[in-house]
Amino acid sequence: MKRFIFPLMAIACGPLLANDTSVWEYPDGSGVIPLAEDNIQMVAETVRIKVKKETRMEVEARFTFRNLSDRSVKVTMGFPFNENWGEMFWEEEESGGPNAKDSLRFVSLVDGKEVKVRLRPDLTESEKNPSWNKRFFFVWDVEFAPGQTRRLTTRYETDWDRWANVDGQFSYDLSYITTTGAAWAGRIGDAFISVEIPKRFPRPTWGDESIVYWKCSPGEPSANPDSSRLVWHFTDWEPDADIHITIAGQEYSLYRYAMIEEICSLGVDRPLTEEDIRKLFVPYGAPKRFGIRVLINTLYARAGHKFKDKDWDSAFKGFDWYKPRKSLSLSDLPESYQKTVEAARRVDEEQKAIEEKVTHGPYGRFMNEFAVIFYYPPYWNFGDENLARLLPLDREGKKVWLRLARNAFYARAGYDFEDPDLAEFFSVMPWYDPNREFEGLGPDEAEAVLNIIRYEEGLK
User: Fold this and answer.
1) Percent of the chain beyond pLDDT 90?
2) How, if at all, do strands 188-196 and 40-53 pair?
């Protein structure tokens, strides 16, 4: 019932997004333990998660519960959150209590009337409730007459988990925990979960300066044309997986200055061949077409081209040789520059065709994701628990993902693949160096591969 935390380098994270659940409260008020409830059914739920400001989100969850029994039932409802929620939001470093409550702005209503909630620690001992980050619950009592239907609403605020590192990788992560709904009697008749995506978040792209992927589960939610809202709708549902959204990517613009410097150091008065260009910038791990764009624009800049694009103009202003005069065409460039530009454009078309083929090939659905994850695998954890979170839900998708992950470690080490689909897939990965001599895997890579193989064996 807690928010999943993205592995390593976390610079901020939010609390819990979860369905209400049933708990047993110790008579002395010292704490609670979650439990199943056999008499009360969650008939329906409607959850709307909207943007309040930037990445801050407002959640309103409406539930319809029915007493299936012929007797009165009193239930203690509970909503969970983590102890260090307050300090994770850069507030005063106090444990639980007022900070968490103020940050969440949690409100509970029963049949439209606000009820008083109590704050209680979760006394369950488990991996999901570690001692270093104990869960707390907001709890309140609800009484049901025989056969009675009641409507509950919870409102609160949260944020996306987010992390970034100095290599330009970033991730935004949000989960709504629906599996707690399985603790109630029967199945959920109708469930509607809507998530608004902040405007500042990048959309899925395979571009020159960034690669971004979105990963949603379970299944594929419906989305409006600009992907600003994702919707899940279930009927007769017994939730066995939680709603999860990952928006992750890699930005490459920070490599631009170093790439420009390298081009200048090559002595570009000599025309570069297509083979020269294919090898250029491989150590940077940037998209090949981005490197080609940097190369072409650098040659134009050195010839005095005046860029209308403010971003590129700014990139070249840091070099004392940049003296823009006017807009130039190819024929205005020195002959050696013209030959290099023409060769670069041929390589660009070649690379574009390969990327198109891979996109529509057997591994295309994982193209963006693997470009980001395997840029620097040590940032990612390939243990069983994290593999389960990274994998797609469908069985065939799991098998394909694991096969690619296992081979990706070999690709990073310079392995030359005989399988044409694998060879083409890895050839478009920004981090793949086809000229590196394969000398085997290091101990960390070998351990990750063995763990992936064990996981694969478990799927058979």
Assistant:
1) 45
2) parallel
- Peptide bond before 218: cis, by omega within 30 degrees of 0? yes
Task: Count CA atoms within 13 Å of residue 418 on its CB side.
Answer: 0
What local confidence, expressed as pLDDT, does residue 255 receive?
85
Q: What does the domain layout of the chain look like in residue ranges?
A: 10-251, 253-358, 364-459
- Kindly state the average pLDDT of the residues 104-113: 91
Of the candidate ranges 16-25, 170-179, 346-355, 405-414, the one whose mean pLDDT is the lowest: 16-25
Written as six digits, the tokens of 138 are: 């907001």
Query: How does 276-286 read in b/e, with b if 16+ C-beta sit within 10 Å?
Result: bbbebbbebbb
Q: Which CATH class is domain 10-251?
A: mainly beta
Count of Cβ atoms closer than 10 Å to residue 200 Cβ: 9
Percentage with pLDDT > 70 across the chain: 84
444 pLDDT above the threshold of 50: yes
Average model confidence (pLDDT) across the chain: 83
Q: Would you give the DSSP letter of residue 185?
A: B
CATH number of 364-459: 1.20.58.1690
The one-letter code for the residue type at 231 is V
Query: How far is the first Cα of the chain from the last one, in angstroms, to the nearest whole number?
Result: 29
Which of the listed CATH numbers 3.90.1720, 1.20.58, 2.60.40, 1.20.120 matches domain 253-358?
1.20.58
At residue 17, the pLDDT reads 55
Q: How many CB atoms lie within 10 A of CB 134?
A: 17
Residue 11 has pLDDT above 70, yes or no: no
Q: 253-358 and 364-459: same fold?
A: yes
Q: Can you read off the two tokens belonging to residue 233?
A: 């709708």
SS3 111: coil
| 93/85 Cα distance (integer angstroms) | 10
Closest among 93, 237, 67 to 150, alpha carbons compared:
67
Q: Phi/psi of residue 428, each to 5°?
A: -95, -5
328-350: average pLDDT: 96
Looking at the predicted structure, is the pLDDT value of residue 340 above 80? yes
Smallest Cα–Cα separation from 379: which of 283, 427, 453, 444? 444
Q: Sort 131 into a burial class: Cβ within 10 Å, 0-12 / 13-18 / 19+.
A: exposed
Give dist(CA 300, CA 433) in Å, integer.
27
